[in-house]
User: Fold Hydrolase from Acinetobacter equi.
Amino acid sequence: MNSALKFKDSPYTPFMQETRITLSNGIELHVEIGGKSTDPTILLIMGLGAQVLFWPDFFCKSLIDQGYRVIRFDNRDIGLSSKIKHDGPKLNAIKMMGRFTLGLKNEGAPYTLYDMAEDCALMIDALSLEKVHVIGASMGGMIAQILAAQYPTKVQSLGLLFTSNIQPFLPIPRPKQLFSLIGKPKSRDENAIIDHTLKVFQTIGSPGLVNPLETMQTAKKLYERSYYPKGVLQQFLAILCTGSLLQLDKQIHHPTLVVHGACDRLLPPGHGKAVAKAIPGAKFELIEGMGHDIPPQFVPYLSGLFAHHFTS
Assistant:
């Protein structure tokens, strides 16, 4: 680990320490690390508009207890990491969705998922790590695929959670779930924003397993920590302007486990199955009752799945 970095205790998670890393491309990332420095490292890459707290503490602690060092971070444009200023023309995301469903690239986004994968690679270098295990969720799973394909020496093995490779003619994201994710609250009032976040969790989450009280508490933490809706839109444009990862998947030769929820209404299970089919030798696990989230009820099983995959 880079000895020049200064760490302090995380105000939200007692077993994690946090720091800020300036990458060689000028991006600054907020990073949190937990576990023993001598244990193998798991890098967690989260999805669209999702701060580090979207990786549940229970999930991180479970991986640490199974003998891993865990790193989670805010992607660019979200949380406490760099915000990207972009003065280009306003893009129509709805029209771009048509090309996206065909696996085609769009133009005009301030950055793509390839740039975000480079952030991950540079962060691995900045932390003086050699190879890491990677778990990518949703958009983070797309970034993880690019990272494994384009920076293969930095990745030891790969875990992908409710993600896609954006190949042509996959089942389209359900409109209700998609628009809840990229939609706006009724006002910029704190209560309206927290209420909107709760509705997003309830709409994309595992049916019957979203605890309203716990989710409200998490939503409040997220709002107090950072609120930057422009970053959510720019990350969404990054997805739309990346194009199909199908050919890239064929270049991945790391041991790969793809996990998907049978009740995922944002990215239906066909997306995860397509990823597993495209990556040579990848294994696929479908979890009944799980949606597009990591509910506490599934944490022991999920963390055990990934820990076993990385060990074996």
User: Anything to note?
Assistant: The chain has a mean pLDDT of 93. The beta strands are 8-9, 17-22, 28-34, 41-45, 69-73, 132-137, 155-161, 256-261, 283-287.
